[in-house]
Each structure stands twice: as structure tokens, then as C-alpha cells.
């Protein structure tokens, strides 16, 4: 495990950089590089659960993605167990797991990463994926290793959930703004047609709607043509 001289600055850097990451891939890259800096590992990978499907979102070195994919395809392995159970799964030596996880054991041997600690990315009941910490030699994972891995995973899970919530809120705001703009445009168009034809606004709206139906376009598109292009009905 990293000493305090390395650990504290690395964690501080992660905490500061996560909110500033422009997108999810950058945030996960920060997580992976921090993990390899502060833990006795040779690499790390992140697999996310997207609509009940696994997605390898990042791996350093890149070939570790293959170890992740093997487990996903086989639907078994430390990664799968950690995600399903919501608890860390530590493997000291993959060569001893051939009976339980033959596909993972073979892939781990092939890529030279016999030890792994699979840390769930979760916050409360939300399970987002797994941070897999790989070692290039058999390794007895200490409670400190696992606690630090869980801390990194928890920080990142919190960031991912917050970022997702903000994206949803922004999407809703954009939708509401679009609906409001369209409504204002329709009201303006009703006023234009009502004034030109000397009819009530409700009657003007019926003309606009009928024109939209005949031409298979949206009402607000007809309204825009009336207000901005001078269309008259």
C-alpha cells in the first residue's frame, strides 16, 4: 500500500479532478490512474453496467479489457460476483480458481495478472459497475488495500451518480424550455392569423392545426413559418 506521502496528494488530486472532468471517460481515467498510483497493482479496469449490459469503460494497460470481457461473456468471474453481490471480491492467485472461474483463470494467466480485487462501484442501492485492481504477481490483499480500493470506488460512484443526475436535470430543463418556446410561438402565430382574418384566437388555432395536419408537420413548425416567414392561412 502507498505511504502517506503519496496517498494523500493522490486522493486530494482525485477529489479535485473528478468534478472538473469534462465527461465520464475522463473521470474514470482519473480513477484508474489514481488506483495504480496508490495501490500495489500493475493495472486497473472499470466495467460499467449500462441497461443491464456490461461495458468496459477503461483499462490500463488496455489489454486488461480482455480479462474483463472474458468474464462478461462467461457471466462468471470476480467482476461478475462483485457486481451481483455488491461486495469486494479478492483473488490472491487466479491459478487456484480454475474450477470456479475457468475462463477468468485462463485469461488472467494469459495476460500475466494472477491477482485481482474487484471493487463494486455502488452508492446505496445503486450498482454502477466494478473497479478491478490487477496485480502482476500473486498478492494477499490486505484490509488496507481493500479499504482504499473501496474508497476510490465510492468516490467515483458518487461522482457518476451526481453527473448523471445533473445530465437528467439539464435534459429536462432543455425539454421544458423547448416546450415553452414552442407554446409562445404558437400564441404569436394565433395572434397574427386572428388579426389578419379578424377571427377569434381559438379559430385561428384551428386553422393552424388543420394546416399542420394536411401537410404532416408539427403545429409549432407551422407557427414558426407564420411568425418568421410570413406564411398566411
UniProtKB/TrEMBL annotation:
SUPFAM superfamilies: GAF domain-like. GO terms for molecular function: RNA binding. The keyword Translocase does not apply. InterPro entries: ANTAR (IPR005561), GAF (IPR003018), GAF-like_dom_sf (IPR029016), GAF_ANTAR (IPR012074), WH-like_DNA-bd_sf (IPR036388). Keywords: Transcription, Transcription regulation. Residues 166-227 form the ANTAR domain. It comes from the Bacteria. This is ANTAR domain-containing protein. It comes from Nocardia transvalensis.
